[in-house]
């Protein structure tokens, strides 16, 4: 079973009991989340597609914490001008675990 969920303007394919890094969410004291913007749900036998959302479908998740991704580096360089600059960036993520998918 899997579902496609819209979170923070991004779409994620999620399955129960797996962990995912999603775009950083605002801090809340809640540890459980319920996502109602479900676009697609697939069982072993049946696929349900929303137009654009599926009514009464929800995905329950648990917040595990925050993490950072790999460091991405880029270089600015101009030939024959003695100019070189290194830039680095680490993206921040919220780590979640999907508990259940229900229709």
Annotation, overall tally of beta strands: 8
Q: Please provide the ordered H/E string of secondary-structure elements.
A: EEEEEEEE
Mean pLDDT: 93
**What is the number of domains?**
1
CA distance, first residue to last residue = 12 Å
Helix content: under 10%
Task: State the strand order across the main sheet.
Answer: 2-1-5-6
Q: What descriptors fit this protein?
A:
mainly beta; four-stranded antiparallel beta sheet; 8 strands; 103 residues
Q: Overview of this structure, please?
A:
This protein is mainly β and 103 residues long. It has one domain (2-102). It is built from no helices and eight strands. It has strands at residues 2-7, 10-14, 19-23, 32-35, 38-42, 47-49, 58-78, 83-102. The chain has a four-stranded antiparallel sheet, with no helix packed on it. Strands 3-8-7-4 form a four-stranded antiparallel sheet, with no helix packed on it. The radius of gyration is 19 Å and the shape is elongated. The model has no long low-confidence stretch (mean pLDDT 93).
Summarize it:
The protein has 103 residues and is mostly beta strands. It has strands spanning 2-7, 10-14, 19-23, 32-35, 38-42, 47-49, 58-78, 83-102. The protein has a four-stranded antiparallel sheet with strand order 2-1-5-6, with no helix packed on it. Strands 3-8-7-4 form a four-stranded antiparallel sheet, with no helix packed on it.
């Amino acid at each position: 079973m899997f579902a496609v969920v819209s979170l923070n303007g991004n779409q994620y394919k999620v399955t129960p009991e797996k962990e995912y890094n999603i775009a950083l969410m605002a801090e809340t004291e809640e540890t459980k989340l319920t996502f109602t913007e479900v676009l697609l749900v697939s069982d072993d036998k049946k696929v349900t597609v929303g137009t654009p959302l599926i009514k009464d479908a929800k995905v329950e998740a648990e917040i595990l914490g925050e993490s950072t991704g790999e460091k991405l580096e880029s270089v600015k360089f101009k030939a024959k001008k003695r100019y070189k600059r290194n830039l680095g960036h680490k993206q921040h993520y919220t780590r979640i675990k999907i508990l259940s998918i229900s229709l």
